[in-house]
Design goal:
- There is one protein chain.
- The chain is elongated and about 75 Å long.
- Helix 12 links the parallel strand 15 and strand 16.
- The strands form 4 sheets. A 6-stranded parallel sheet has the order 5-6-4-1-7-8, sandwiched between helices. A 6-stranded parallel sheet has the order 11-10-9-15-16-17, sandwiched between helices.
- With about 400 residues, it is an alpha/beta fold.
- Helix 1 crosses helix 2.
- The longest helix has 16 residues.
- It is about 35% helix and about 15% strand.
- The chain binds adenosine-5'-diphosphate and magnesium ion (MG).
- Adenosine-5'-diphosphate binds next to helix 9, strand 14 and helix 13.
- The site of adenosine-5'-diphosphate has 19 residues, from helix 9, strand 14 and helix 13.
Length: about 400
């Protein structure tokens, strides 16, 4: 791929690395409640520090909208970062200017500095060239290790990348390689699973996928809209009836592109959206009663989908197949995720998944570790599934 990685760095001893990371961790009582994002950027930080660079970390934290808020200072993350890294980190309460310059003078090769929340400065989200220039002035080279922020053209994710020699960090490199193997350059046949609540949030994903994959597996609330568009009475199910026309257009586009759309033919239904409702039953999609909701893909359909996956070499998955937070409506998601995990372990399938609830569902199924790659990037992952160029990635490309 057309971007430089840490392998392309020469001798960095004593040089200042400006490293964009994602430290936007959920916090409670002054401690991070989930260290996943911090752990993801450890390899890049330690590799640069151990090579003798002075490492300056750039990150955003929450949504301060261009103003300083003590509750959103990155100093709150310093302790967790030090614990995960096993190194001391110097907190620097600015992102540019003389304070940073002085800190760079104090840091020795191999030391790590954490700059303040980039979003305290209005120029960050505006991608102000002056701010980007001021940030870049204190660095010798730039490393982006925050794929999850790469869909934003901000000063710290995009602007600075054009002003210094720019490299992908290890986490970014891994993510881009996995995504490349899943959609840009995949082994065929490719299957996509798209589920979740509403098709209105994923129209562009569906439109992009029909031209790229051979099997489009639709589940979740979205499947109801497609079923309704085909004339199925979905009762009280979550369904966007006004998008019937769009659903039909997507199915027509799939036909033209030689992509098979898989909709459930049996489903799990209930009269109320609670765990283990007494009214739960499995039926054919044509037998849903007026007071019932479709809450999961049925067991026969799941078996057929497992057979589809067995014929595929690549799988990309976004969105749970049912209301997986409430048993038994996690059944289809768990079963198909386990099939995908087993095929991946056997070596016959490359499996890439992403999306907030999707990642939670894969953990719930106990198979997140067995997928080839699970992206925690949220918005950036979805924009990539929509086929969009991410500005933070584009700024790294074409530089070798
Ligand atoms: P992701 O975060 O992985 O992109 P979404 O946010 O699009 O996924 O969708 C996840 C949500 O969709 C879950 O809260 C799940 O309960 C809901 N959902 C899935 N299937 C159904 C259904 N049949 N009816 C109602 N909600 C559903
Ligand atoms: Mg979600």
């Amino acid at each position: 791929m057309a971007f430089r990685t840490l392998d392309d760095l020469g001798d960095v001893r004593g040089k200042v690395a400006l490293v964009r990371v994602d430290l936007n961790v959920p916090m409670q009582d002054g401690r991070a409640t989930d260290l996943t994002r911090i752990k993801a950027v450890v390899p890049t930080i330690l590799e640069l520090a151990d090579a003798g660079a002075k490492v300056l970390l750039l990150a955003h934290f929450g949504r301060p909208k261009g103003e300083r808020h003590s509750t959103l200072s990155l100093s709150l993350v310093q302790g967790d970062l030090e614990r995960v890294l096993g190194r001391e980190v110097m907190f620097i309460p600015e992102i540019a200017g003389p304070v940073v310059e002085q800190a760079v003078g104090i840091l020795r090769p191999g030391d790590i500095g954490l700059l303040e929340n980039t979003r305290f400065w209005p120029g960050e989200e505006k991608n102000d060239p002056e701010l980007a220039k001021a940030i870049a002035a204190n660095g010798d080279f730039y490393v982006n290790d925050a794929f999850s922020a790469a869909h934003r053209a901000h000063a710290s994710t995009e602007g600075v990348a054009h002003l210094l020699p720019a490299y992908a960090g290890r986490a970014m490199e891994k993510e881009l390689k996995a995504l490349d193997a899943a959609l840009r350059n995949p082994q065929r046949p490719v299957a996509a699973v798209v589920g979740g609540a509403k098709i209105s949030t994923k129209l562009e994903v569906l439109e992009n996928l029909v031209g790229k994959v051979q099997h489009l597996i639709i589940g979740g609330g979205m499947a109801n809209t497609f079923l309704a568009a085909r004339g199925v009475d979905v009762g009280k199910s979550l369904c966007e009836h006004d998008l019937a026309g769009t659903a039909n257009e997507i199915m027509d586009a799939a036909d033209r592109a030689g992509c098979t759309v898989h909709l459930p033919y049996d489903v799990s239904v209930a009269k109320e959206l609670v765990a283990n409702p007494p009214s739960e039953r499995v039926c054919n999609v044509h037998e849903v009663a007026a007071d019932e909701m479709i809450l999961d893909v049925g067991p026969q359909a799941v078996e057929a989908l497992a057979d589809v996956l067995k014929t595929c070499r690549t799988l990309v998955w976004n969105g749970p197949l049912g209301a997986f937070e409430l048993p038994p409506f996690d059944g289809a998601t768990v079963a198909l995720a386990r099939t995908a995990a087993a095929l991946t372990k056997e070596g016959s399938l490359v499996s890439v998944a992403g999306g907030g609830d999707t990642v939670a569902a894969l953990h719930h199924a106990g198979v997140a570790e067995d997928f080839t790659y699970v992206s925690t990037a949220g918005g950036a992952f979805l924009e990539w599934m929509e086929g969009k160029q991410l500005p933070g990635v584009a700024a790294l490309e074409g530089k070798d």
